[in-house]
Amino acid sequence: MSDLNVRPGPVPPDPALVLIAEDESEIADILIAYLQRSGLRTRHATDGHEALTLHQMLKPDLLLLDVQMPHLDGWKILSEIRSRGDTPVIMLTALDQDIDKLMGLRLGADDYVVKPFNPAEVVARIQAVLRRTRAGGPAAKQILRVGPFQIDLDSHEASVQRDGQRQTLELTLTEFKLLACLMRAPKRVFSRAELLVNCLPEGDTQERTVDSHVSKLRKKLEALDIQGTPASVWGVGYRFGAGA
User: Fold this and answer.
1) Structure confidence at residue 3 as a pLDDT band (50, 70, 90)
2) How many angstroms separate the CA atoms of 211 and 121, rounded?
3) Does residue 2 belong to any structural domain of this protein?
4) Which of 87, 114, 134 is the last residue of a domain?
5) Before 148, cis peptide (omega within 30)?
6) 117 shares its domain with 210
7) Which of these, 45, 38, 34, lies nearest to 15 by C-alpha position?
């Protein structure tokens, strides 16, 4: 009897996991069927809070996100997802105004699909985004660096280099989100409305609240002898800093 000496080959990677955040069950069922038929794994969230919980638990490869979700809308969900890292997000919505598309892209959406849609096209868009984002293998650690500042998005830590040593910044969640948002595009000026949607907790609707949080962040940095961050741009909003 011969010994075939068969060695197991490498284990193929699991199919990509797509988290579908959609409150209309008929639409979700159609998307699930098409995605599974294409070899993708799926999970379904029916409201905004569930979407964030499942995202934290499952670490999906892509989030298909409806804007008009119960309890927590898609803009708030996208903002929170972006504060956690770079999970690819495709917005799925009945809104077809250019301003809505621009809002999604400014907040970090990777693509935008308008209802009514062709499910096969949605699958094609998802596959295109996954090819682009998975081409480099496992995602690199998400770290932002601008000047002496460093933000680790994975561990949610912010620090600054002072006198040859790295010092941790004790920031509130909102202050952390503000600093991270400004550091992503340090030369860009963000309006108060953008920062309100991007960085402040659900329920805060007054743009002047942004000024209060920015002022507190600035005072913490000034205590470390860091001046002009964030920088005010009169009549527009804020940017990372005058020297960026």
Assistant:
1) very low
2) 42
3) no
4) 134
5) no
6) no
7) 38
